[in-house]
């Protein structure tokens, strides 16, 4: 009998996907059947009189219904914010402001488990991520900016930092609570008041945050949280009494916002799409690089603007790297987001799943080779198998357009200059990753890659002290760190 | 059957290991939540993978006999428990252990090659091994010459392992890298590669005499080395973390790591062992807890 050929060897991982269920209890998550708009410190019925449902994408069951704010509701929220700004917040000593922000952070920590469960129920992300990443990082952002509130004169030496007024903040559905924290914390620290709108598919943790804000006894109107879809967002963007727009979301909507506010004097920060290059050189620690690639593209089902969706591997190690990625796909558990062993949860919405599936078809039609692991996905709910494409061309749409799902394209390269050129050959410029054992190569690449965040020998690391933001069509302005204060102040 | 020709690579350029990355990955395995039947199976498998060990200067014939009895009768109050994989002793105790274990199916493993320091000339090490094998050892746990390895004398280390392998005859060879003395993950990886290409049947982290002994990241480095070696040569190599694994929960973390790195073909005691002396009782305590719903005091489990 001939011995099995080398290239037919395959490790077997069926048992690694079949752990006994370990679901997180839902009992801590108190979700009301209906939520109104949080305006002026109270939950108020919408003037629109309309509500819409928010569902659990893993089961398609309705969780609650939330108010659909119209232009009149937006106006009411902005008036409340303006009033709070003029009468209370801008006059309050900075160290008092800081106390409120600290209080929000601490209550969030105390209720961390509840927030994690609701984030997972409403958004579909695995409980391991909402528990270990989203909620603690959100609380950390409040802690961090609470510290800055009374130290702005050190942040901006010899200048005086004045607040802008009312900030209109529109956040996406991929990290609902964390994005709310990214937006609210620096705005409050610098003395602005806020009208925040969470995405229509994931409003619940923002509304729970409203409960925290009540509990923390923030002066009424300092933070207003209103729910709704695109029309609500448009009403915010076009409201004449908003001084600043902070938006995280798609590049298309970002462009619309930019047109709408042109000539109005409104300030803006836009954090938009991305199509990040993750680059593996042949001298890289390959197993760790593969883990970074997996984390880079499959974290949060790939619903990450800085996801490392384009992998470039140096050709001499390409075969080995692809084999390792394929093996790793075998041990990714796709399923019930509430199960503590789930690695990849539910796609956030049916619409998004359709978009992803359309791109899978496009990729196959373009001639790329699609590969998925042998694990199964639940029959109910919105799920997508983690997918890689090999034999991809730079001109393929799957390599150019943001898919916002668990889909990785793999290309090979020969020289450093070639990969720099290819990595920069995209309308986006949010993030990039470099994997090599050679320090000089890292510095060469980080100076030449046109991306706001570049990780070396790691990926998707976030910290409140570190600024985040993009180049080109990935937007402008920075969030996080000292830099995250600038967009909310006028320096005189 | 045509054997694949194994090309021995240059050991001066081993695969690189990133410290932060490997530690993060190892920590990730500890996030798996192991419950119910998975936990029960894991605990039973853990018992079955243990190399019950006594390696003291003060070991006596009586103590080794007791240990051998325990190896076969872990806790008779719980019927149907597996035996451990092997009893691990010094060469002078091999005959005693062999006799005590009889036809129980439990192997006798013997440390050799001037364990634990390895500070002896090669001929002394070889005769140490030959003595243990002749006394009836089924498995030999050798130590590498860390001094030579750290000096960069990789060929010396390679040749020594190959010579010991030859002296082992039918006995399976476990090569102890003593990772606590190698310090960096890069060196652990290099030593793993040398041991496997030189003929190791198993690679093992530690003697248990040096701190740190086995850790999850170090074990992961070695598992990944085994995986790469398997893809290059088609040859399976066993893994034995030893020292410092005394709690069931940690043992389950190791099994998760094994399961998700090398897959189910390694999930048995032919390919994976725990070198441990106190782990068995903690596993037994967990098993009894699962059966009765309450924890029993440690005095309800025999200490051997």
Brief synopsis:
With 492 residues, chain A is an alpha/beta fold. Chain A has helices at 71-89, 94-110, 112-123, 127-148, 152-155, 176-189, 204-215, 230-237, 251-261, 286-298, 315-330, 350-365, 397-400, 416-424, 439-448, and strands spanning 34-35, 37-39, 42-44, 51-56, 61-67, 161-163, 166-170, 193-197, 223-225, 244-248, 267-271, 277-280, 310-314, 369-372, 387-390, 407-413, 431-435, 453-456, 475-476, 489-491.
Range of strand content of chain B: 5-15%
Strand order of the largest sheet of chain B: 7-6-5-4-3-2-1-8
| Number of extended strands of chain A | 20
Q: In total, how many domains does the architecture of chain A comprise?
A: 2
CATH H-level name of the largest domain in chain A... which superfamily?
Aldehyde Dehydrogenase, Chain A, domain 1
| Sheet having the most strands of chain A | 7 strands, mixed
How far the N terminus sits from the C terminus of chain A, by CA atoms, comes to: 83 Å
The unreliable regions of chain A are 1-7
Please explain how this structure is put together.
The complex is a heterodimer of chains A (492) and B (304). Residues 1-7 of chain A have low confidence and may be disordered. Chain A contains 15 helices and 20 strands. Chain A is an alpha/beta fold. In chain A, helix 10 (286-298) packs across helix 11. Chain A has 2 domains: 34-272 and 471-491, Aldehyde Dehydrogenase, Chain A, domain 1 (3-Layer(aba) Sandwich); 277-456, 3-Layer(aba) Sandwich (Aldehyde Dehydrogenase, Chain A, domain 2), CATH 3.40.309. In chain A, strand 17, helix 15 and strand 18 form a beta-alpha-beta unit. In chain A, the strands form 5 sheets. In chain A, strands 14-15-16-13-12-17-18 form a 7-stranded mixed sheet, sandwiched between helices. The relative contact order of chain A is 0.14. Chain B has 304 residues and is of the alpha/beta class. Chains A and B meet through helix 10 of A and helix 1, helix 2, helix 10 and helix 11 of B.
């Amino acid at each position: 009998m001939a011995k099995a050929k080398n290239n037919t060897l395959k490790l077997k991982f069926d048992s690694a996907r079949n752990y006994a269920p370990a679901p997180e209890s839902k009992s801590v998550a108190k979700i009301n059947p209906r939520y109104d708009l949080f305006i002026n410190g109270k939950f108020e019925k919408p003037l629109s009189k309309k509500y819409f449902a928010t569902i659990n994408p893993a089961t398609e069951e309705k969780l609650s219904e939330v108010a659909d704010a119209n232009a009149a509701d937006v106006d009411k929220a902005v008036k409340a914010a303006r009033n709070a700004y003029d009468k209370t917040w801008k006059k309050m000593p900075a160290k008092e402001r800081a106390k409120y922000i600290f209080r929000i952070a601490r209550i969030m920590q105390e209720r961390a488990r509840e927030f994690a469960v609701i984030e997972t129920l409403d958004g579909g992300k695995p409980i391991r991520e909402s528990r270990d990443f989203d909620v603690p990082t959100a609380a950390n952002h409040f802690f961090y900016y609470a510290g800055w509130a009374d130290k702005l004169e050190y942040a901006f030496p010899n200048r005086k930092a004045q607040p802008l007024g009312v900030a209109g903040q529109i956040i996406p559905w991929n990290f609902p609570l964390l994005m709310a924290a990214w937006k609210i914390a620096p705005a409050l620290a610098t003395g602005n008041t806020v009208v925040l709108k969470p995405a229509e598919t994931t409003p619940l943790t923002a509304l729970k945050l409203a409960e925290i804000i009540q509990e923390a006894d923030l002066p009424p109107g300092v933070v207003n949280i209103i729910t709704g879809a695109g029309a609500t967002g448009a009403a915010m963007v076009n409201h004449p009494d908003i001084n600043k727009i902070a938006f995280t979301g798609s590049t298309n909507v970002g462009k619309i916002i930019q047109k709408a506010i042109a000539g109005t004097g409104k300030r803006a920060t836009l954090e938009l799409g991305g199509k990040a290059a993750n680059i593996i050189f042949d001298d890289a620690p390959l197993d760790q690089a593969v883990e970074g690639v997996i984390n880079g593209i499959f974290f949060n089902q790939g619903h990450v603007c800085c996801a490392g969706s384009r992998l470039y591997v140096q050709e001499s190690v390409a075969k080995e790297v692809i084999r390792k990625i394929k093996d790793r796909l075998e041990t990714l558990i796709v399923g019930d987001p509430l199960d503590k062993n789930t690695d990849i949860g539910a796609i956030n919405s049916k619409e998004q799943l359709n978009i992803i599936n359309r791109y899978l078809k496009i990729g196959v039609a373009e001639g790329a080779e699609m590969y998925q692991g042998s694990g199964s996905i639940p029959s109910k709910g919105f799920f997508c198998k983690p997918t890689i494409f090999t034999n991809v061309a730079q001109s393929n749409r799957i390599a150019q357009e943001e898919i916002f799902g668990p889909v990785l394209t793999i290309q090979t390269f020969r020289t450093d200059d070639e990969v720099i050129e290819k990595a920069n050959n995209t309308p986006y410029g949010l993030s990039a990753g470099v994997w090599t054992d050679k320090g000089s190569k890292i510095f060469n690449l980080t100076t030449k890659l046109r991306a706001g965040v570049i990780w070396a020998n790691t990926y998707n690391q976030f910290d409140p002290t570190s600024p985040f933001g993009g180049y080109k069509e990935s937007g402008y302005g920075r969030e996080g760190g000292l830099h995250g204060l600038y967009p909310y102040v006028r320096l005189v | 059957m045509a054997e694949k020709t194994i090309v021995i690579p240059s050991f001066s350029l081993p695969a690189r290991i990133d410290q932060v990355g490997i530690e993060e990955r190892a920590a990730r395995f500890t996030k798996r939540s192991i419950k119910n039947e998975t936990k029960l199976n894991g605990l039973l498998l853990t018992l079955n993978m243990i190399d019950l060990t006594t390696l003291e200067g003060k070991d006596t014939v009586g103590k080794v006999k007791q240990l051998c009895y325990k190896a076969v009768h872990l806790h008779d109050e719980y019927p149907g428990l597996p035996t451990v994989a092997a009893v691990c002793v010094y060469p002078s105790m091999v005959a005693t252990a062999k006799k005590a274990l009889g036809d129980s199916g439990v192997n006798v493993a013997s440390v050799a090659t001037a364990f634990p320091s390895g500070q002896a000339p090669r001929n002394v090490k070889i005769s140490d091994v030959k003595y243990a094998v002749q006394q009836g050892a089924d498995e030999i746990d050798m130590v590498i010459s860390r001094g030579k390895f750290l000096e960069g004398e990789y060929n010396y280390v390679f040749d020594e392992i190959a010579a010991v392998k030859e002296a082992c005859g039918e006995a399976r060879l476990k090569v102890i890298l003593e990772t606590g003395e190698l310090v960096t993950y890069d060196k652990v990886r290099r030593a793993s590669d040398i041991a496997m290409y030189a003929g190791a049947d198993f690679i093992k982290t530690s003697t248990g005499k040096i701190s740190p002994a086995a850790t999850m990241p170090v074990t992961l480095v070695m598992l990944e080395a085994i995986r790469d070696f398997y893809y290059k040569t088609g040859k399976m190599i066993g893994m034995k973390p030893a020292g410092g694994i005394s709690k069931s929960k940690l043992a389950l973390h190791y099994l998760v790591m094994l399961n998700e790195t090398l897959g189910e073909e390694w999930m048995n005691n032919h390919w994976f062992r725990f070198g441990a002396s106190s782990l068995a009782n903690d596993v037994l305590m967990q098993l009894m807890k699962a059966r009765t719903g309450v924890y029993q005091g440690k005095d309800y489990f025999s200490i051997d």
